[in-house]
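@channel sequence for tomorrow's demo:
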Amino acid sequence: MKIVISSGHGKYIRGASGFLDEVDEARRVVEQVAVYLREAGVDVQTFHDDTSHSQNENLNTIVNYHNAQTRDLDVSVHFNAYQSTSKPMGTETLYVTQSELAATVSSAIAEAGSFLNRGAKYRGDLFFLNSTDEPAILIETCFVDSSADAMLYNQWFDNICRSIAESIGGEEVPDVPPVEPPVTEPPPLTGQNRVEIQATIHGDVTIVINDERVVGHEECEHVVDMTVQGVGDVTLVINGEEFHNKPPEGEEDIPWNQQDIEATVFGGSDDPNESAYPPHDLLNGDTDLFVALPFKFTQEPRPLVRVFHGELSAEAKIMDVGPWMTTDNYWEKGTRPLAETCHLEGAPLPSGPNAGKVPSNKAGIDLSPALANKIGVEGKGQVHWKFS
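structure tokens (generated this afternoon):
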């Protein structure tokens, strides 16, 4: 048996993100599953898209690679997303023709990772499943925006990958005695709600965590790198600022790809602009509350948008198109803003009035000065937004 297995999305066409990043983790899963398949004597090839700069190009690149290989089974590895939650969401496997295999794989992953088993699901609308020439399944490993799923995934990563390898390869992976790490006693847990902190100290820096001093050395830059993850219903206070898992009231239903969006300010007396929508009046941004989104809406009336910043929020009209793009309806595509991805990757924008340019910021929404002032954004800031 020969299997071709690939990760969903790509280096420049990012997928979902939350407690986990879909692209990074799908690549980890693919490569570890391949290790286990080879240990079981199954022929396997892996693929990750490092070249595409648009969704269509990405889909075609992945499918074309699969169809260029001689194989018996095609597998695509993805991670699901819905909305940020501490609840377990689970795993599922999608199919068009391979219902029995999809059910087997979903059940195996659920058991290996202690996930909820959402089961095999028929999906006749997915390009990968419809366009690969051989039998195919698409694995949604777990939900990136569920802290419960993320914790189980990290805890049982090897078991999950082994279960995928055995269920798609039909062969048992031989046991290899693990290398035992040094035994260290972890601090006792007080319950399911906890804060996990991983810190690295660079330079002449001393910090104290739970009365334990952590000291850096003098030869390098003075930096404290900290990764903090809350598990369960926790609130962490740093320098008087609260960080918590639960979104403020009113934000619970904001999709992951409309959270923490970089916002810039435009359209005031210092930056006169005409509306992109008829009758193309001059925008009065010093008094009117409005936004621009990087896609031109055709329906009338256009939906209203509520923008959140900290504890403040305000409702606004859509009066212009931007920033950076004019065709990037990322809220419908289930992706982050294309300008954000291109800025982070140093990649040029693939289309629109700024095609060929690397965006100088990550902006996925523009605010009028009046709106920015109402919610406390000065020049540029991170906001959440949703349609009212």
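heads up for whoever presents: The mean pLDDT is 87.
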